[in-house]
Amino acid sequence: MDEQRLKILYKKHCNNALTAEEFEEFHKALEDIDAQLLLSLYADSGQDNAADSFAKEDVFNRISSKIDDIEKQKVFSIQKSNKVLYYKVAAAVAVLFIFSYFILNHIAHDSGIETNKSALESLSKDNTKALASNSSNIQFADGRTLDLDFLPDDSISHRGLSIVRVAENELTIHNEAGSADFDLNSFHMFAAKKGSTLKLTLPDKSTVHLNSGSSINISSSYGIKDRNVLLKGEGFFQVAHNKNTPFIVQVKDAQINVLGTVFNLSAYDQDKEVQATLISGSIAVNTSIDQTVIKPGQKATVGARSAIRVDSNVDLNQILAWREGVFRFHDQSIESILNELSKWYYIEDVQVATNLKDKFTGSIKRTKQLKDVLTAIQEVSDLHFELQEGRVKVMK
């Protein structure tokens, strides 16, 4: 692709004006773009001075290392009845799209991220909806947001909270009760962007892995006067034992009480039920009308009317598949599969023809593009998919 065409597509991307076809063209072009050309695109946007303020070389090095780590080819399988498809596709991941999105956010809010202790002064203000829609990973109590891909240093402090990046998509959080701006009653939100996961180590050494599009709220007082958190989406918890201070997760209309244990908790807004699956230890599940204690290997499901049912016949491999970076389905309908896919991919709307009785079993790598996943299902069925601007139509 010639440079002029790339500049046109880039500018349209910054203005959120790309058509589906142009987005695909732009996506493919980014696979071969070099750092110098990327820098020239940014300079042409009129942000040269701002570009100097945020360690461009470090950003490019980080992007380059990500590109080197990408596996060139993946294999996955889907089964329909006894038919198996082995579907090979190139893992073409446009890592530089992340950088491009940052530039858009940077220009839109007229703010820069400085590589010093006052970095937070230039972070953009946002709201919860924008945070959940992939703009940032952290929303502080004062409304300021932060994108971890462009954290100026490996650590940052704000409102009595110290955040340390220990690896990609992995943070350690500490309390700073003695700091001047410490607020015992402030709450901060941490989110895993769509299509990624985030691991957090909390001040008491408990850990939580957040699935795609999930978030957790913790207070500055976590571990000081309580261990209360609020979860939206799905999280895998490994809770440090503390008999004097229970670990409490509030999720929709249910509350999970823990002393020290390992469990998975799923409660996306789009799901009608809350599902708590215990790996080890013990947890109590409470609602306004019901309560129960489950054992390892059991799953407690909170229904729409807050009633709790317990299932001892649990497929942990399927429930924890997201921790392995795969989707795993067992005799599931296309509606159920698309519901799961929408938690990882950008699917805004699904239209399914009536009377579709196909059931699918198999696993799919989460590194695949959505169109490749749908093509794989299409190859082993008589279904046909139309994908356009986040909308999926399923037909026979």
UniProtKB/TrEMBL annotation:
Q: Where is the Protein FecR C-terminal domain?
A: 327-392
Annotated keywords: Membrane, Transmembrane, Transmembrane helix
- Does Hydrolase show up as a keyword for this record? no
Against Gene3D superfamilies, the record matches this protein to: 2.60.120.1440, 3.55.50.30
Ranges where the FecR protein domain occurs = 193-283
Report any Pfam family annotated for this entry. FecR_C
Membrane spanning stretches: 84-104
Please give the name of this protein. Answer: FecR domain-containing protein
Source species: Sphingobacterium litopenaei
- Kindly list the organism's lineage: Bacteria, Pseudomonadati, Bacteroidota, Sphingobacteriia, Sphingobacteriales
